[in-house]
Amino acid sequence: MIVTVTLNPAYDHILILEEMDPGQLNRASTTMRIPGGKGVNVACSLALLGEEVIATGFLGGSVSRPFEEYLRKVGVTTNFIYTNTELRTDFFVMEEKKNRQTLLVEEGSAIELRYINSFKTNFERLLGQADIIEIGGSLPKGVSPSFVKELIILANKKNVKVVLNVQEHILKECLGTKLFIAMPDLRGCENIMGKNVCKLNLRPLISKEIMDKGTEIVILNSESFKYTVANKDELWEGEIEAGKAPIKIGVRDSLLAGFIYNYKSSGNLGEALKYGLGCALSTARNKKANQPNSIKEVEELRLMAKVRKVS
Amino acid sequence: MKKVKEFMTRDLTSVTEDTSLVEATEILSLRGLNGIPVVNKHNEIVGWISERDIVTSIFPEKVKIENPDIVGFTNLSKVVKKLTQVGQARVKDYMSKTFHGVKEDDDASDVAELLLHKDLKRVPVTRNKLLVGVVDRASLAHILLEEGTLE
């Protein structure tokens, strides 16, 4: 059983148009509204792959019920803590002609301490059923990176593996705890641990620095379909030819889901990376959701992935 | 006939015995539910707390109907005092320890019989004693009608 934690989920409101003219009236040819947030995206992809998964975090307001219903429809078990605040909406403007994506993110309201305490109690109970905990995404106001560290320590005590899919400042706070996988969210930045992640020759150093602080596997990327995966013994690079697949939200999360799913059974970094790349591309091709189109498509696409062992 | 796991609501919303009644009430209110399972630290169901349990705890047999349209209290100060006490109380003091549940491999017809005979709106679903979801009358009715149409 995998439990995904999304402390700051949001509805992803996606507006697709040929090209945006800033400052002018623009009409979207297609509009979608789907549950989002890193943990939620990972949960949806894992459910499609047939994994039993529980999604938890904070929700609130009238739109939370359809949010949960959507997740349950795709096979995710829900266990969110409802607060007296309103769920955020993130706006994505996708321009087909330029294959460009513009993101407008709502900050959201602060979470009161009583809800944070309820979440922690519930989280401890879920640990009893979990093999892996995935914690992903940003933090709402009122929740600090040290709270994430607290959750990891609780999981470590129960020998539940932890996957961390967060921004650098949260990751840095949590280094020193025992992490199964660290996948820094590098959107909007090129540097991590003070080094440029775009430079392939620096990735082994970045990975080593993170692994030296207690992490088993590090996944790095700078572009949608080019990844580096490392553990203490091996380092792999992988990419997949995306063709006309649009830049799309949830692709990185889908790669992570595919990687976790495959690595659980294969224990092979290269194979897991291939599978993850297949998931990522299938998600990019899915025009209706932040998850792969089908297992069959993932199986087909992973054969197109090119991975090589660097060391 | 469909199995419960094919149509249950995969949601684990629950409280523990130590949850305050205030918090339990807020959960029911925010989610628009009439009852939720009470679980222990292993996520095993140990009871059920409903809006009825809570309302009864606030107004114990003291509600007097003076007029079909007006509900009055024999002693308002007593009710206020009771409200303060109840607010601090824990779920374990007011939950129903005898509750009805179904297993995820039970047939839809078994659940229908249970809900109708016991006049229940919602029951928890378990797998090896662990909470895995809930079934309510609406989703059951939908699934039975769907099956009836197919036949």
What structural keywords apply?
heterodimer, A: 311 residues, alpha/beta, UDP-N-acetylmuramoyl-L-alanine:D-glutamate ligase, 2 domains, eleven-stranded mixed sheet, four-stranded mixed sheet, globular, B: 151 residues, CBS-domain, three-stranded mixed sheet, 8 strands, 37% helix, elongated
Write structural notes for this entry.
The complex is a heterodimer of chains A (311) and B (151). Chain A has 2 domains: 2-218, Ribokinase (UDP-N-acetylmuramoyl-L-alanine:D-glutamate ligase), CATH 3.40.1190; 224-311, no CATH class. In chain A, strands 1, 4, 5, 6, 9, 10, 11, 14, 15, 16 and 17 form an 11-stranded mixed beta sheet that branches. Chain A is 34% helix and 28% strand. In chain A, strand 14 and strand 15 (226-230) form a beta hairpin. In chain A, helix 1 packs across helix 7 (251-266) and helix 4 (145-157) crosses helix 5. Chain A has 311 residues and is an alpha/beta fold. With 151 residues, chain B is an alpha/beta fold. Chain B has a single domain, classed as CBS-domain (Roll). Chain B has 5 helices and 8 strands. Chain B has helices at 21-31, 51-58, 76-88, 108-117, 137-150, and strands spanning 15-16, 35-39, 45-50, 63-67, 70-73, 102-103, 122-127, 130-136. Chain B has a 3-stranded mixed beta sheet. In chain B, strands 6-7-8 form a 3-stranded mixed beta sheet. In chain B, helix 4 crosses helix 5 (137-150). The termini of chain B are close together. The model of chain B has no long low-confidence stretch (mean pLDDT 84).
Structure described in brief:
The complex is a heterodimer of chains A (311) and B (151). With 311 residues, chain A is α/β, with parallel strands linked by helices. Chain A has helices spanning 38-48, 64-73, 113-127, 145-157, 168-174, 203-211, 251-266, 269-285, 295-302; strands at 2-6, 10-17, 30-36, 53-60, 77-78, 81-83, 88-95, 100-104, 132-136, 161-165, 179-182, 191-192, 195-196, 215-223, 226-230, 235-239, 306-309.
